[in-house]
Amino acid sequence: MPIEKTASRLQMIDALRGLVIIFMMLDHVRETFYLYHQASDPVDIAHTEPALFWSRMLSHLCAPIFVVLTGLSAYLYQQKRQNLQQTREFLLKRGLFLIVLELTLVNFAWTAQFPPQVIYLQVIWAIGLSMVALACLIGLPLRIQLALSLLIIFGHNLLDQITFSQPFVQNIWHVLHQRGWIEFGEDLKVRTSYPVLPWIGVILFGYVLGHLFNQKIAPAKRNQYLIMIGSGSIALFIVLRLLNFYGDQPWLEMNTWQQTLMSFFNLTKYPPSLLFLLWNIGLGILILVAIDRYSKLKIMQPLVVFGSVPMFFYLLHLYVLKILYVICVMWFGHNYGEYFGVSSVAILWILTAIFCVLLYPVVKAFSQYKHSHPEIKILKYF
């Protein structure tokens, strides 16, 4: 039975993470230079151009894959060290670190407010809090972990209509499942953009999925299991979506076939619906297998570099986009109402490609520095 090297497994994970990082940057370029053309969630099919809709849907791969890979990487971390307590401590420390980053550097990149008047609890917050939750769950038996992850993923939509009259309890519910606002006096409001309960199910599923990456399982056998899981997830999505009764808002027959197709794939992200997770996690798993099969292609190396330092790339691209937007406003002024923006989705794709090329040397240099200086403990969080 062929044994896969740890470096090979980590590279395929980094490559997938790097790919979705690029999709994420495309969406953030949209939020920076196409903000005058708002894309709500769910997207308004009747008033959203197809190119913008499908670009937005592509970015929906990012959060589910990030969270699944975070759980999977936690398992690999534990497998390497054979120490449950050390893994739990790492998850707690990194989770709390990500939460602090969300509240400080990430939020400032979006709002440019100090002290902040509004704090948005977004994907980094959700990943951080999910890591804290995972730290409490990794000691459970494998079967219970799998059952709990599936119970959350498949069952959380049953909770959609629940609200609470007590403000304190409702605020907790905003954090767990219902997107909303939490007010701290008159000077600070917090938006729970990413309610965390579904993401806890996803990160736990990723941790369980990590068992397929055990060195005792041959790569070919693992990929067979992954194809079965990914294909099964997509097949279940199609069946449930066609039945149109549970897992997301109903899809509608629209004026054109393209609008009908857009309605079919118009899935709720905040919080992520069952169908949103089935489609994006299933597709992400199949992409992971494809990356493994074509890992020797040269295009994979830049993806591995981007995915090897995801937090550094995340902060870097947010601040680069913010600075460039300020420069453009100073140079060109507001050309679309109160915004500066570009004229088409095609230009957003071109800008994203340019930013990838320009940021790659910086990201590569930081990645090399990180991996050549393991004694600098803070670098492992990036």
Helix-strand layout with pairing:
Layout: H1 6-33, H2 50-59, H3 62-81, H4 84-111, E1 118-120, H5 123-137, H6 142-155, H7 167-176, E2 181-184, E3 188-191, H8 197-209, H9 219-243, H10 257-264, H11 274-293, H12 300-308, H13 310-332, H14 345-372
Parallel strand pairs: 1-3
Antiparallel strand pairs: 2-3
Helix pairs in contact: 1-2, 1-3, 1-11, 1-12, 1-13, 1-14, 3-4, 3-5, 3-8, 4-5, 4-13, 5-8, 6-8, 9-11, 12-14, 13-14
Keywords: Membrane, Transmembrane, Transmembrane helix
Organism: Acinetobacter populi
Protein name: Heparan-alpha-glucosaminide N-acetyltransferase catalytic domain-containing protein
Inertia-based shape: globular
Give start-end ranges of low-pLDDT stretches.
none
* Overall pLDDT confidence: 90
**What is the tally of beta strands?**
3
* N/C terminus separation: 35 Å
Which band does the percent of strand residues land in? under 5%
Label the structural class.
mainly alpha
Q: From the alpha-carbon coordinates, what is the Rg to the nearest angstrom?
A: 21 Å
The portion of residues assigned to helices is 55-70%
The count of domains is 1
Total number of helices: 14
**Going across the major beta sheet, what is the strand order?**
1-3-2
Sketch the major β-sheet: 3 strands, mixed
Please provide the ordered H/E string of secondary-structure elements: HHHHEHHHEEHHHHHHH
